Amino acid sequence: MIARYAGGETGARAAARAGSVVVVVDAFRASTTIAVLVSRGARVIPVASIEEAASAAADLRIGERGSAKVAGFDFGNSPTEVLAAEVPPGVTVALSTTNGTRVLEAAAGSPAIYAAAFVNAGAMAEELAGARDVTVVGCGWEGGRASEDEDAAGAILRRLQDRGAALDARARRVVEAYLRRPAGALRDNSAARRLKRLSYEKDLEFCLSEDTVPVAPRLVEGSFVRGQTGSRISGPGAKQKREIRP
């Protein structure tokens, strides 16, 4: 296996064109929220706009802009709120976020698209065991880099490396940064401070915990569902349909 790192919509689009499996990482908080929902048995439909989320055929609506909850939606993009609400299995959830859903849209055409973060790094590495070419994409924030996404990507890439994957140069640098970054650094970066201002401290701690939600959410016919951990992934040529409408 070759495992790569790329950033943002541009990186996701290039990886999809190259026929790589794409793992979208939005650690604070879309990927984490998706993992929690899927672990509860929910189907998660990622959509690019608030308007489409509002009109989607869904049981629940989750959305944020600038980390704040969208008015009138059932939840903000908060994994701890979802956990506390005890969302029942079988529900369909429409999800729209500032960065994560746009990057997912850019990955359309990939053989397989996943959502991952710190909380499911190990499950994601297990799920990808049969892949030949994987690109882990850090979403970033409004077109820029985000240290939490790069470190969560590093956590996934390190586990892939431990399973024998060959990392490209950029992926190796991301892993090295993940390993040497002080444990508390991500609790005081710009994204963490934004969450604290909005009283989402519980989300911050939850999102930074590794391997606590052992699922690998995979985008299948427009919805995230539980992946088949350890199953083989179809290679280039088995294109993922366009999943998110603008």
Describe the structure.
- The chain has 246 residues and is of the alpha/beta class.
- The protein has a single domain, classed as putative 2-phosphosulfolactate phosphatase (Alpha-Beta Complex), CATH 3.90.1560.10.
- The chain has ten helices and eleven strands.
- The strands form three sheets. Strands 7-2-8-1-9 form a five-stranded parallel sheet, sandwiched between helices. The protein has a four-stranded mixed sheet with strand order 3-6-4-5.
- A hairpin with a 2-residue loop joins strand 4 and strand 5 (68-69).
- Mean pLDDT is 89; it is low at 230-246.
Protein topology:
Layout: E1 2-7, H1 8-17, E2 21-25, H2 30-39, E3 43-46, H3 50-55, E4 60-65, E5 68-69, H4 79-85, E6 92-96, H5 100-106, E7 113-116, H6 121-127, E8 133-138, H7 147-162, E9 166-167, H8 169-180, H9 190-197, H10 201-208, E10 217-220, E11 223-226
Parallel strand pairs: 1-8, 1-9, 2-7, 2-8, 3-6, 4-6
Antiparallel strand pairs: 4-5, 10-11
Helix pairs in contact: 1-5, 2-4, 6-7, 7-8
Spans of at least 5 consecutive residues with low confidence: 230-246
- CATH architectural arrangement: Alpha-Beta Complex
Q: Helical proportion?
A: 25-40%
Assembly type of the shown chains? single chain
Number of strand segments: 11
What is the CA-based Rg, rounded? 16 Å
